[in-house]
Amino acid sequence: MKKLSLICFAICIVLLLFMVRIAFSETIDVGDLAEEYGTWIGNNYSLMSRGNPANATGTIDHIEMYVSSIGSGDKVTVYALTEVASGEFDSGGSSGEFTVVVGTNIFNAPGDFVAFAITAGDFIGCYTTCALKRDTSGGSDVLLDYGQEFPMDNFTFGSTYTEDKLALYGTGTTGEPPPTAKPVQSQILILE
């Protein structure tokens, strides 16, 4: 009975420490709000929003986007992008590929994707086979390039839509990033 009490006590301490860590976590947000803006952009483009860079370092575990139409496909992959030199970007963490529908799309980790690391100052971007909503004013630029350019290594986008917003937004928490996971064909995740 004494062993059982000690085990229960240890479990309670671990749960309390976990709850304290969550209570003191800062919320990370990156990108522009995923709203139904007046126009669209996409269909086989790599896109990045300069609006609202990540406010802290941690993990992205929630992604929202507003899809305008399903053009040549219904797939979107979201990435964290670091500006390594003026106008040159490296891709970091990735959501993996999402299947989307027209309208608001919300994805959460765990479940829909494996949460990925982001560093304060990073941007959010994506490769999309469909069209995402964008606003042509009030933003901080949308960078774009035709074709799938991920992963990126010292990549320069081909075009810029000045002062635009992209309907792509991510949130998460500060703290230790999760272990990386690699899916294998049997759909079992192997933690490294």
Description of the structure:
With 192 residues, this protein is mainly β. Helices cover 11% and strands 48% of the residues. It has a single domain, classed as Jelly Rolls (Sandwich), CATH 2.60.120. It has one helix at residues 2-23, and strands at residues 27-31, 39-42, 45-49, 58-69, 75-85, 88-99, 103-108, 116-118, 123-128, 131-135, 142-146, 159-161, 165-166, 168-174, 181-183, 189-191. The strands form three sheets. Strands 1, 2, 4, 7, 8, 10, 13 and 14 form an eight-stranded antiparallel beta sheet that branches. A six-stranded antiparallel beta sheet has the order 6-5-9-3-11-12, with no helix packed on it. Strands 15-16 form a two-stranded antiparallel ribbon. A hairpin with a 2-residue loop joins strand 5 and strand 6 (88-99). The protein is globular and about 70 Å long. Residues 14-24 and 180-192 have low confidence and may be disordered.
